[in-house]
Please model this.
Amino acid sequence: MLSIRQLFLYLSAAFIFLLFAGLILVRWLWFYPEEMSTALSAQQNEVFSLNGVLELKKENLETFVTDYSNWDDTWNYVQQPYDEYVTTNFTTTTFESLKLSGALLLNNQRQPVFNLEYNDQAAIITSNSNRLLHWLQQGGINHLHNQPETLFQRIEGQPYVLAISPVVRSDNSGPQQGWLIFFQLLDNSVLSVWEQITRIPLTRTDIPQNPVDLLSNLNTARPYRDRCLMSPEQQPVYCFRIHHLQAMPQFLNLSIITTFLLIALIPGSIFILMLYLLITPIRKATELLQLNSQDGILRPVLFTTPIRIRELRQLRDTYNQLVYTARQQQARLEQLSNTDRLTNIPNRRAFDEALETTWRRLKRHQQSVALILVDIDYFKRFNDHYGHQAGDDALHRVAQALQSCAKRTDEMAARFGGEEFALILYIEDANSLDATRHRIRECIRELNILHGYSSVSHLLTISFGIAWIRESGQWLDRMSKEEWLRAADAALYEAKASGRNCNMLQMITPDVPFTESPVWQQSPD
Model:
């Protein structure tokens, strides 16, 4: 006959053996493969992140060469070269700002019109570079196509990224006159930039015997792996080693063994007692958590125990604090998701929600509301000549000025897209409408933003279209909010077609609903 002590010992030994065997089996069949899969997935994400940086670099270079090649001055220069074009547009500042190592312009006969190479250490531009001509003679001519292209190439033992674009007019009229090629050297400093962006340690390596492309399949997790940037001919151009941040999982580590020993030493009697003391509050908390999971609503946990257990109370208080914090973060995230980062006003998503809410209110109550679409006149010219930083600053100032026109809590100004903005304003009568139109124009004029490349003013101006619903009601059931938006968009289009720096009005009433051929009322100042 066994004593309680012996029974406990036998059961404890059997428990420990089964626990250890189960631990090994679960680790082998489930957790360890999952950890390896997680590590592999993390390493794949790191490789994709690095590839995203490379694609962005290629896109930026392709954008630069396309801007230069789709320029009337370049198109004219290929036909009749003159020194001022090169000395003005390809200075040391140009090469340094665009991080170019060389530039090559070819005519339709694939003959060089100019051939420039930049020495960044000496800050010297040299012409008639043998290096660039050598690449052209060694097969580079095969990459001249009718569409822009970016590729990696190895030229005289040095890795480069090239962007090639056909030379055409800015409006794509007239025949193609040749190709413009920009060269960027991939030196050791490139890896430092990629490391700063991706936070992934990288080291340059020599070209191996069996080079592997950057996006080749990752079959297993490894501490590091060697990858190469390949040319279109599948020749290695630039090779480096990726030191993955994700630590390699171990089958058994100190943490797992320690956890096992702690669990194995728990006496059975204490285990049963703890079950008795904890099962009721845990079951109630679990039921509440399951309910939270089902309906997606976070609720605080409320329970009592036969014995006042500090840990359970701390768990309850900590969880409830977490619920409170999560609710605050959820509200903050919802606010951020509805705010445009550049202009700090509501974005398109927030505008769509406000438009839906306003439309439902219009059909329930009789109100007069105007939907206004605003477009900055000749903003692309502003961006091209003053730079994207100045363009971003102008967008922010215009957005804040338009937001000041929304006085009521149920009114709004939002960024509609690009240089377009949208306003929802409550306007009761014609006098209020005229005052609103004047206020919108004045708030932009008061910004006093110089725009020397505008065709309508020396200051930055706007055009806007107004779709004004006069005395709404159930008659709006015959329309939709999309038609209201199209009415404002059509009014904006008409304002831009009428010379810009003006606005157009489409009044929508039960007697004069919006049609595809509306009667426009121009409202110049």
